């Protein structure tokens, strides 16, 4: 980590491509489709056998299946980056200013509350399934941003910022829901130990210029083992281990130091990248290219039982509730909460944005793939009918939301492109 910039000349084309939103989203699709095809092929038994293979360390309560390792372990890398991004947004990003942050924060809250309410209302006649109320509250930022990048070349830049901020807050809310509502028992000693290790991790990270500049090995020798210990202790505490990833990410310093230069001793911004930028640059390919696709591969594999099985799944109230909550609840909650905060406070939308643009983003937010699958794993017994129906619903809702968002935002993109073309024609001599 001694490079003066997060972008190094040593990066090969593969690592560079894995940092692109479109590539990460594409790998998610490939992994999910591969799992679905394999789980519904004549070789389905081999898929489930692979998913259920247990490896690890039994004395440390880490004798886990590959599927669990992917959900609890690999996904912690993704959530670590979420924590880093949130820290950056809160320190010097769009969440730093209350006036600019209140609209997407409120939109994210509405996009969590309304889908949860829709699910709960639709499932009141099935109280045993109410535990899945949080499944439709999450947004898959990787999918959503990838689709926006593909179809939104001429959309206002403020729309992408709005989506990123909304998704970041959405992730934070989802993390809180997992920690509070999906933790059945807590072992206080491992939890306190995990908190202690996270504090030490943060203290060392805060001195990263002292420890790590010109010592690239130090970050891996010091921070990586501490992070693994914190993850293991969090797992032993009973709280979902991905929470450790978020907590560790929040400890990473996201602001570059200022230094005095020149004879007038005026402070100027140090050009050296901060640790948040360095870690995000190094870990993004690992998360997008391996951790999240592997999780998707093990989480998306569900035996639907052919057309008859699909027909059965789509006849279930659970399936309908999740699809309705994601496809309808997300945009409704985002639009309604944004209108309320714009109507009754001094905050408002960016002037370049229209309500139809926001409706398209609301539909994109209905893509709940990664975190929704994780919550489904926590809500229902793996292998149970409810567990499989929930997965079918999540995948179906994500496809429907993506298609509808593509139609809306694709139309808006063409409109903005024509408007830009007309403006260029007017100004040409």
UniProtKB/TrEMBL annotation:
Alphabetically ordered keywords of this record: Antiport, Cell membrane, Ion transport, Membrane, Sodium, Sodium transport, Transmembrane, Transmembrane helix, Transport
Main location, first listed in the record: membrane
One GO MF term: sodium:proton antiporter activity
One Pfam entry name: Na_H_antiport_1
Keyword Transmembrane: yes
Biological processes, Gene Ontology terms: regulation of pH
Chain segments annotated as transmembrane: 22-40, 60-81, 101-121, 133-151, 158-182, 188-204, 216-233, 239-256, 286-307, 319-341, 353-376, 388-409
Catalyzed reactions per annotation: Na(+)(in) + 2 H(+)(out) = Na(+)(out) + 2 H(+)(in)
Localisation per UniProt entry: Cell inner membrane; Cell membrane
Keyword Ion transport belongs to the record: yes
Membrane topology: Multi-pass membrane protein
GO cellular component terms, A-Z: plasma membrane
Protein purpose: Na(+)/H(+) antiporter that extrudes sodium in exchange for external protons.
Family statement drawn from the similarity comment of this UniProt entry: Belongs to the NhaA Na(+)/H(+) (TC 2.A.33) antiporter family.
Name listed for the protein in its UniProt record: Na(+)/H(+) antiporter NhaA
Source organism per UniProt: Brevibacterium aurantiacum
């Amino acid at each position: 980590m001694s490079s003066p910039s997060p972008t190094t000349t040593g990066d090969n084309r593969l690592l560079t491509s894995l940092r692109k939103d479109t590539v990460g989203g594409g790998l998610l699709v490939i992994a999910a489709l591969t799992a679905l095809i394999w789980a519904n092929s004549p070789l389905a038994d081999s898929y489930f056998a692979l998913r259920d293979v247990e490896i690890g360390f039994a004395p440390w309560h880490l004798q886990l299946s590959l599927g669990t390792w992917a959900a609890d372990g690999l996904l912690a890398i993704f959530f670590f980056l979420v924590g880093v991004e949130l820290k950056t947004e809160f320190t010097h990003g769009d969440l730093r200013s209350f006036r600019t942050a209140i609209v997407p924060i409120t939109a994210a809250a509405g996009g969590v509350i309304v889908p949860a309410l829709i699910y709960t209302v639709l499932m009141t006649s099935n109280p045993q399934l109410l535990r899945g109320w949080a499944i439709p509250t999450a947004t898959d930022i990787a999918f959503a941003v990838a689709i926006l990048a593909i179809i939104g070349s001429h959309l206002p830049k403020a729309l992408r910022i709005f989506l990123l901020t909304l998704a970041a807050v959405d992730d934070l809310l989802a993390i809180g829901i997992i920690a509070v509502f999906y933790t059945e028992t807590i072992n206080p000693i491992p939890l306190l130990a995990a908190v202690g290790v996270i504090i030490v991790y943060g203290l060392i990270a805060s001195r990263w210029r002292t420890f790590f500049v010109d010592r690239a090995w130090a970050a891996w020798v010091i921070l990586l083992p501490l992070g693994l210990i914190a993850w293991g202790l969090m797992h032993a505490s009973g709280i979902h281990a991905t929470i450790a990833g978020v907590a560790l990410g929040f400890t990473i310093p996201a602001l570059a130091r200022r230094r005095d230069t020149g004879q007038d001793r005026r402070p100027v911004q140090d050009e050296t990248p901060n640790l948040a930028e360095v870690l995000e640059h190094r870990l993004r390919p690992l998360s997008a290219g391996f951790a999240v696709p592997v999780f998707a591969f093990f989480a998306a594999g569900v035996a639907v039982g052919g057309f008859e099985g699909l027909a059965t799944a789509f006849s279930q109230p659970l399936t309908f509730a999740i699809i309705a909550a994601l496809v309808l609840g997300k945009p409704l909650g985002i639009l309604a909460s944004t209108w309320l905060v714009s109507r009754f406070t001094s905050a408002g939308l960016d002037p370049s944005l229209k309500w139809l643009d926001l409706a398209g983003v609301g539909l994109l937010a209905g893509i709940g793939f990664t975190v929704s699958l994780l919550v489904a794993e926590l809500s229902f017994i793996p292998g149970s009918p409810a567990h499989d129906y929930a997965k079918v619903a999540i995948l179906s809702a994500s496809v429907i939301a993506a298609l509808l968002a593509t139609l809306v935002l694709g139309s808006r993109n063409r409109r903005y492109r024509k408007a830009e073309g007309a403006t260029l024609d007017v100004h040409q001599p």
